[in-house]
Structure formats: C-alpha cells, structure tokens
TrEMBL record:
Signal peptide: none annotated. This is SRPBCC domain-containing protein. Belongs to the AHA1 family. It comes from the Bacteria. The lineage of its organism: Bacteria, Bacillati, Actinomycetota, Actinomycetes, Pseudonocardiales. Residues 15-135 form the Activator of Hsp90 ATPase homologue 1/2-like C-terminal domain. CDD domains: SRPBCC_CalC_Aha1-like.
Amino acid sequence: MSSKGYDYSITRTLDAPVGKVWNAWTKNDEYGKWAHAEEVELDVRPGGEWRSVMVIPGGARVPLTGTYTEVVPKERLVLGMNVPGSDEPALMAADFVAEGNKTKITLSQTFDTAEDRDQAEQGSNMLLDGLTAYLAEN
C-alpha cells in the first residue's frame, strides 16, 4: 500500500476453510453470487485483468475494471480498481489466513481523503457481509 494517509483494515473470521473462501474470491460464477455482480471475468494472476458489473440496491449497474498486482494462492490478493478521473488505480489487499476449518480474512486500503476511505470501507463491509452469507448457504 502507499503512504497516502487515510487507511482502513477490516478483519473477519469466516466459518469456511481457506480453499472455499479463496474460490469464492477467484471463481467467476462464485464471485458473482456473493458480490452482487454480473458479467464477471476474473483473470487471477499478476497482471491479469478483472471486470464486473456491480448491481447496487435499487438496481443501478456500475461497471468496474482493474488488474491483479499480487496473487499468492490461498494467502493474498492485491487488486487495483480503475477509478474515473484518477491516474492510479485504487489498490485493495485481501489477506487469507487458514485457522483450521475457518479463515481469517483482512481487507485493507489506503486513500488520499477520509471521504474516499470511508466509502471504500463501507463497500468492503458490504462485500464481507455478502461473502459471509454466501459461505453460510453453500
């Protein structure tokens, strides 16, 4: 991450083994189910591109694109998201730690402004809520 100044880190322990959590983050069909996304394309490798259309409450569709910058299977994903009007992608790290049949996941990001950080943190909590519900059902 950079030293821009406004960061967050969210850690949750999920009731699923790390392989299942990893697959939920890296398989097109699974990611779309819990992340409320359509048209999901994930090329999970360093330099690989990802794209999806997020469907937000109310039905609005938001196209998202980016690139994976770091991939350590079942341990770490760092992905950049292209942000309109910005020369640099917003980077997010997802760290996975196996704890028996559970997985500790930590999402973290750093931003230039507190407002951007707060919006991203809210979005990350929504992602983790969706992931938690998906893992409980599958």
